[in-house]
Amino acid sequence: MFESILKNVYEKTPLVHCITNYVTVNDVANVLLACGGSPIMADDEDDAVEITAICDALVINIGTLNKRTIATMLRTGKRANELGHPVVLDPVGAGASSLRTDTTFKLMEEVKFAVIRGNISEIKTVARGSGTTKGVDADARDAVTEETLDETIAFAKELGAKTKAVIAITGAIDIVADSDKAYIIRNGHPMMAKVSGTGCMLSAMIAAYCAANPKNHLEATAAAVCVFGLAGELAYDKLLKHDGGTSSYRTYLIDAVSKIDAEALKGGAKIETR
Questions:
Q1: What's the whole-number mean pLDDT along residues 100-111?
Q2: How many CB atoms lie within 10 A of CB 66?
Q3: CA distances from 71 to 51, 75, 76, 123, 265 (A)
């Protein structure tokens, strides 16, 4: 399904500027290399504006937010818009504090995002202006289940129409949608929640995939979510064979991303459209 999407990433090696959080920055860089992209990190305001001009995409991740980087995010996001680069927003912990929530809305007012990726609680905050999260994790009461799936798909499409962005809601069941079409993805493994930064890594992968497929952001995002979820499954299989724990799983996850090709994805993707 996504053969050309993956092919474009490996052929173009998109350079992704990441303004991301310092908890996960190394893993973000490594997963970009693993998926076929190339990372660069800069968050000084003047430096970042110059750096983003030489890149192909920008990720804005608010996971370790501070007032200095807010100004950087706004200036750099606007510069990326001027250049026509896809910008991905990861509103980590939106709803957990006023600073995170207010900054999310300030960014959305001033920067055009190609993709907004978060857990269901973060995305509900994006849509409604307030929400509840368990720190940077989704509130269990918001969980996407088979019973709430239709409602959540409709919600994602509505938000996609409102923001003119691709909406990626990730969790046990992933939803990737714009105003017209939704992909439902059931790849992944619960062990992914035991490693910090899996969402941050995925947002960076989405940016690389969108940069390499500029006219097809919906499918590019769905492909990235599929690849990362499948990598989570393969990493767990390897973990069982080696009696490893959470740290080993993190390594195996990045390993799996580096090894998944179009053929492996075709055989392992658990995806439907609505």
A1: 96
A2: 11
A3: 15, 6, 8, 23, 39
Q: How far from 136 is each of 5, 31, 34, 151, 214, CA to CA, in Å?
A: 30, 20, 25, 23, 30
| Full-model pTM | 0.95
List Cα–Cα distances, 184 to 9, 88, 149, 164, 270, in angstroms. 22, 20, 9, 19, 8
**CATH class assigned to 3-184+194-228:** alpha beta
Q: Give the DSSP per-residue string, 156-195.
A: HHHHHHHHTSEEEE-SSSEEEE-SS-EEEE----GGGGGS
Report the DSSP pairing between strands 271-273 and 182-185: antiparallel
Closest CA to 27 of 259, 255, 258, 254: 254
Q: Where are the domains of the chain?
A: 3-184+194-228
The helix (run of H) or strand (run of E) holding residue 83 is helix 67-83
Q: Is-contact 169 125, C-beta < 8 A?
A: no
To the nearest 10°, report the CA torsion of 192, 194, 199, 202. -40
Query: What mean pLDDT do residues 81-95 have?
Result: 96
Residue 145 and residue 173 in contact, taking contact as beta carbons nearer than 8 Å: yes
Q: Using alpha carbons, select from 266, 242, 262 the residue that is nearest to residue 252.
A: 242
pLDDT score for 136: 47
Distance separating alpha carbons of residues 241 and 66, to the nearest angstrom: 42
pLDDT of residue 143: 78
pLDDT tens profile 189-237 = 999 999 999 999 999 999 999 999 999 999 999 999 999 999 999 999 9
Q: Structure tokens of 26?
A: 């190394």
Angle ∠(176,178,180) on CA atoms, nearest 5: 120
